[in-house]
């Protein structure tokens, strides 16, 4: 009964309709709280989450998963799939404990803002006010000897000292030291047998060792994912005069009733800890073993938690800093944390720069990635939704516009979790129902459509989203077909898109674009570079390129072509035996339609159809005037989803 009491306390934001207890100790299964339909979801489409997760378990992608989705403060979905252990003998339960890796960072960020609100921590203050050891850190700058080609590391003073805000927004000049630069090589000394980033060393020890190394960038100039939040954890210790683990326990975990969250899983709960996959090398290997005691309370990646606990943390943020009568932060502070905090001219570097930045459709607040551009985002959701993930595959996001929180807990090899978070997010938004779906009056009156008319509707239709809740922005523009990144202030070609102008002109991965229309572009931001390369279709742009191993620049004149980003899903429409058959054609299902399960839709008029089962998706085939391109509109009206026929 004590375990059940703690469970109900931990899930008090959930309106649970049924609670079934399994016979195994500490194991339980929970039915969704409240009817999913009453919360705006389709039960059958939510069930696709567990079905997809099971396919991943069967394929060996991960041993098990727990997913939780809440809306309007009530849970619509909470399920466990698979196994807790690597040998796949112990069924996974919803109260399983996972190493959450970098999902620790938002927790640390909230802790810092608690102190900011209390006046004990100043966002604009230099970090050395709290950590004097870091005052004289230099900045590492690589220089290349033009005669020998040898790269040397020079050191220069900071132009501006790193601030507390820089730590929160990853602009402090720190990275993880996992790349190939000279600074990265120095950072690796932090993790060795004689280093200071170890479980038997403290945050104070870590800061002492870090102070002897150079920064990777000038503070405030580059967004680079790294050790900044571990430094922030030590700042919190100094500002609060309390060990970081104790501060989190007394100021966050206990008030929020996060009963299973901490830096070490106690012995009594080890039977609920999910086995980790093989982790090669630090920093992950240092903080991942949450079954063992630690002195290094890593604010960047050291916590273990459950889906239920993290759901409570997220619900507090969605509520504007309050949960169950306990206020952690003010609404104004939560708003500040979840709004863009980056300067307009910021440059992006590091392994996460494809997620945060113009190419990822998101920016960074104070502890969270914030969805800022639906046209570039690789996941659905409202602009303004905020999120983060862990290298082991754990993931959450909060969508204030939809009053929704979603958490997925899995354990995969570090850095391999992106496809799983994208699929979970797509399936979640794809489960939204159309509010007050109207019934078709003509549904009771049979309609006959001739075969020639039906044949005009056959084809493949591409959609930019599987959900009416995603912002429907066309993913077409005039451009060169280049994927670029900013490295050391230079615009570097990551890859040209096959068949597009850049690829046809012979531009190669690794090329450096030095000039656009004869104007030098060194030092511009990634968003500025992308904007300059885009433009109206059939307009020209001149590039000057530097290529390794080639003397002198390469001058090219390219004509912009229409670029169409890959859609989120396709529908295949076919005619058979006088009926129109529709099925999903890709990895994602779409409303009532799934791959391999064609559905015969019922005609309601010469160009309108509906599904006479499931969620009764409505379809309308349309052309605009002289436009010969056929469009397929699903659920016409304010929540419609529109696709274009591509063949």
Helix content: 10-25%
Radius of gyration (CA) equals: 26 Å
Portion in strands: 15-25%
Helical/strand content category: alpha+beta
Per DSSP E runs of 2 or more residues, the count of β-strands stands at 33
- The helix count comes to 15
Mean pLDDT reading:
88
Poorly predicted spans: 1-32
The 3D shape can be described as: globular
Strand order of the largest sheet: 18-27-28-29-30-31-32-33
Verbal overview:
- The structure is a single chain.
- With 647 residues, the protein is α+β, with helices and mostly antiparallel strands.
- Among the domains are: 124-236, no CATH class; 441-473 and 566-645, Lipocalin (Beta Barrel); 477-564, PDZ domain (Pdz3 Domain, Roll), CATH 2.30.42.10.
- Helices cover 21% and strands 23% of the residues.
- The protein has 15 helices and 33 strands.
- It has an eight-stranded antiparallel barrel.
- Strand 30 and strand 31 (618-622) form a beta hairpin.
- The chain starts with a helix and ends with a strand.
- The relative contact order is 0.10.
